[in-house]
Design goal:
By secondary structure, the protein is α/β, with parallel strands linked by helices. The protein folds into two domains: 5-90, Helicase, Ruva Protein, domain 3, CATH 1.10.8; 111-296, Rossmann fold (3-Layer(aba) Sandwich), CATH 3.40.50. 34% of the residues lie in helices and 15% in strands. It contains twelve helices and nine strands. The strands form two sheets. The chain has a seven-stranded mixed sheet with strand order 5-4-3-6-7-9-8, with helices on both faces. Strands 1-2 form a two-stranded antiparallel sheet. Helix 7 links the parallel strand 3 and strand 4. The protein starts with a helix and ends in an 18-residue tail after the last strand. The model is unreliable at 300-311 (pLDDT under 50).
Length: 311
């Protein structure tokens, strides 16, 4: 049976309208770099056609070649039938305009720390970027934060650590694509376990921080991502607590720890009531990323709130 879409949908505008309608009817879930059906459709169309993703408007009335229409039909169908995040279908994701290779071995990169790195958002915690000489990206996943850290701290060497060898394979691709293999060292490590006696001026981490209940209720889009990259225990903070407890041994005396924790602020502050968390807000979020100076991480004594399965 012939596909009538290939004859009747001839412009980018036609395919945008069609994709938005399909996605709405299918009840898709978003949040992997897009916030709704319109954003998702625009991303898929622009990335599939290898057009700049920052502005759809110049291309809306462009007429598409038959092979381009066929590609769009296939990827719209795939998004609806597989329920995979758009980034897995295109093999790409963007943070602050920077493109990263992504596949199902890693979580789709969307860390708030990336936005903070590429703006002035870390200035209050890291006032002089040129004084930062050693950075650790803990739980690096696909390596996007390590790459962005190399851009933000031009004098720094970066260590990117992850427990997953599959994730580090993706990290290597992104590090190589940006020509940063001499500045970014990839290390397989369960948090700090494989880092020896190294010390850092700055530790960044976007660890697993989703609660067990939330992971169990994931829609297909989120369930497509590695469970290891999400699961943070009963209250989501198992790994975050371990990071806080151990980070002081790996920071220089004037170093800083910055961690993304999602919606866990209240539980975290209850676990560590003695720590003066500095909360770093982005344009659209507050209370999801904290900073702590090394001087406050010498010997924290957590008041644990439950035990959960490690991520």
């Amino acid at each position: 049976m012939s596909d009538t879409r290939l004859e009747t949908l001839v412009t980018v505008r036609d395919w945008l309208r069609y994709a938005v309608s399909r996605f709405a009817v299918a009840g898709l879930v978003y949040g992997h770099g897009t916030s709704g059906a319109l954003d998702e459709a625009a991303f898929l169309i622009l990335e599939t056609l290898r057009l700049p993703i920052d502005d759809l408007a110049p291309w809306l009335d462009a007429r598409l070649l038959p092979e381009e229409r066929a590609k769009l039909a296939a990827i719209v169908d795939a998004r609806v039938t597989t329920r995979k995040p758009a980034a897995y279908l295109t093999g790409s994701a963007y943070i602050q305009g920077h493109r990263f290779v992504v596949d199902e071995r890693v979580i789709v990169p969307r860390s708030l720390i990336g936005e903070l790195l590429m703006s002035d958002g870390l200035e209050v915690a890291v006032p002089d970027p040129e004084e930062v000489r050693a950075v650790l990206d803990l739980c690096t996943g696909g390596g996007s934060l390590a790459v962005l850290a190399a851009m933000a701290f031009p004098e720094a060497g970066i260590v990117a650590a992850d427990i997953s060898p599959d994730a580090l394979d993706v990290s290597r691709r992104n590090v190589d694509d940006y020509g940063l293999s001499e500045r970014i060292q990839l290390v397989q490590s369960d948090l700090f376990a494989g880092l020896g006696a190294q010390r850092f001026d700055l530790i960044l981490s976007n660890p697993p921080y989703v609660t067990e209940a939330a992971v169990a209720a994931f829609p297909p889009e989120y369930a497509s991502e590695p469970r290891l990259a999400h699961l943070g225990g009963v209250d989501g903070l198992d790994l975050v607590r371990r990071i806080i407890e151990d980070a002081g041994r790996f920071l220089e005396p004037d170093g800083c720890l910055i961690v993304e924790i999602g919606q866990g602020r209240d539980a975290l502050e209850a676990s560590f009531p003695e720590l003066p968390f500095l909360w770093l807000d982005t344009e659209e979020t507050s209370g999801e990323v904290f900073a702590l100076d090394a001087e406050h991480l010498a010997a924290p004594v957590p008041q644990r709130r439950g035990k959960g399965k490690r991520g």
